[in-house]
Structure prediction request, 78 residues.
Amino acid sequence: VFYYGAGPPWMYMTVDLPSGNGTVTCELERPGGRYVLVGAFRISGGYGSWGGDAGHGPVTGARLVGAGGAVLATASLP
Prediction:
């Protein structure tokens, strides 16, 4: 996960899991543990990537969530 918080905030996420296909969602963690959906993308063979607007406000982490609600990957951000 790469997060850029200056100017208009944006982020880029890439994932390389052992396997998996389908649509996943990218969520940002705000202070206090609240998650906000910021985008979705398809993974194929466990690999995929997404970049886009990260909304406004402080960010403490990010997570990738599968279609069934399982958390597939997490990242802590300073």
